[in-house]
From TrEMBL:
This is DC1 domain-containing protein. It comes from the Eukaryota. Residues 339-380 form a coiled coil. It comes from Gossypium stocksii. The keyword Metal-binding does not apply.
């Protein structure tokens, strides 16, 4: 009792402090067990957590073999890979738990140790969706086969996976997508108010807002505005480059090429496979590439990003000197810009609604006049 604090702040309930109370009937929010003994409680939110669950070690604790984690309501026990079969999959990445993992055998819920370290917040604020906070989902059973689409990488995955999502919008974010993947800094495009994040590749083609071409690799995005621009569509991006993997210059060109296609007659609907000569991976066939026509050497934009980035850096520095690009804190903030855009849409909708109301009233007057005219003619017919 001496070692138990009278008041704590716990990551299961960050909004309020929890106070130690005695002899109260409750159901623990951590392990779901009912009791009437000691409990930490938030009277305002009616949240209870028993002492046992409250004092569980966290993942940062040395040699912790049992932890309480925000991703699951029950304590998670450290399991060696030898104890787990090939069928046991991590709820964050779907891969088999060959490495030591924390899990709850009762719910068949397992997480690789790396994800228990990286994911420690039940609720986060993310620049990809600045209007609302994102909440860690409660994964469904493994037998649940419906899918969701990650709003960042556009990959389809099973609902049983952990993810961050917005309860107000249809916005889903993979565990691997909520943290930065690349070290390329955000880019300020001169004709857009927000800084854009670089995406190396995604799982479905998206349309460029400038030239309306579709691509899957090497582009900048600001997801809240649904603004996308391919790196080769930026004015300062060089159209011809030199790369160490090829002797001749490479020029950006629209793909696919006729010599790549098995059947040119059915080019749009064919299942021909197209590859990048640098990474040797499949590429999206309708995306512009850098190529050498003489040698038929073709590479995706993302594979020559090191040759393209310097031109963007120079452009940003020049724009900053001229005052066209300021710091991220200058001007309207992300949220203010989005709210302003929504307010404009609301105002426009109200104006359209008022115009429609006037149009309806006008037609009602015409209809009333026609009905009166019809009644007069009926009366004249009866009189005859």
């Amino acid at each position: 009792m001496i070692d138990i604090p009278c008041q704590i702040n716990h990551f299961f309930h960050r909004s309020c402090a929890l106070v130690l109370l005695t002899n109260i009937p409750y159901q623990c929010e951590g392990c779901d067990e009912a009791s009437s003994g000691l409990a930490f409680r938030c009277g305002k939110c009616k949240f209870q957590l028993d002492v046992k669950c409250t004092l569980f070690p966290t993942i940062e604790s040395k040699d912790a073999d049992k932890i309480l984690h925000c991703a699951h309501k029950h304590p998670l026990t450290l399991r060696d890979s030898k104890e787990l079969g090939d069928e046991v999959r991590c709820r964050a990445c779907t891969k088999s738990c060959f490495a030591p993992s924390f899990g709850c055998t009762e719910c068949n819920f397992f997480l690789h140790r790396s994800y228990t370290v990286e994911v420690q917040e039940k609720e986060i604020h993310h620049p990809f969706h600045p209007l609302h906070a994102l909440t860690l989902s409660s994964p469904l059973q493994l037998s649940h086969h419906e899918t969701f689409q990650c709003s960042s990488c556009l990959e389809l995955d099973d609902w049983f996976l952990l993810r961050y999502h917005c309860v107000n919008c249809h916005f889903e974010l993979h565990m691997d997508c909520f943290k930065p993947k690349v070290t390329i800094p955000d880019f300020k495009y001169e004709h857009h108010i927000h800084y854009l994040s670089y995406f190396d590749s995604i799982f479905a083609p998206i349309e460029c807002n400038i030239f309306h071409e579709h691509a899957q690799t090497g582009f900048f995005r600001f997801m809240a505005c649904a603004f996308n621009i391919h790196i080769y569509c930026i004015r300062s991006t060089p159209k011809t480059i030199k790369h160490e993997r090829h002797l001749h210059p490479l020029t950006v060109t629209k793909s696919p090429f006729q010599y790549e296609m098995i059947s040119a007659k059915h080019a749009n609907g064919s299942n021909d496979e197209f590859y990048c000569d640098i990474c040797e991976e499949r590429r999206y066939k309708f995306e512009s590439v850098y190529c050498c026509p003489e040698c038929k050497f073709i590479t995706e934009v993302r594979c020559v990003i090191s040759e393209l980035l310097p031109s963007l850096t120079i452009l940003e520095e020049q724009s900053t000197e001229k005052g066209t690009v300021g710091s991220k804190n200058e001007g309207s903030s992300t949220i203010e810009a989005i709210i302003g855009n929504l307010n404009d849409q609301i105002t426009k909708s109200k104006q359209e609604r008022n115009a429609l109301k006037k149009e309806v009233e006008k037609h009602r007057e015409i209809l009333k006049s026609l009905e009166e005219e019809l009644e007069q003619k009926k009366w004249q017919v009866r009189k005859l």
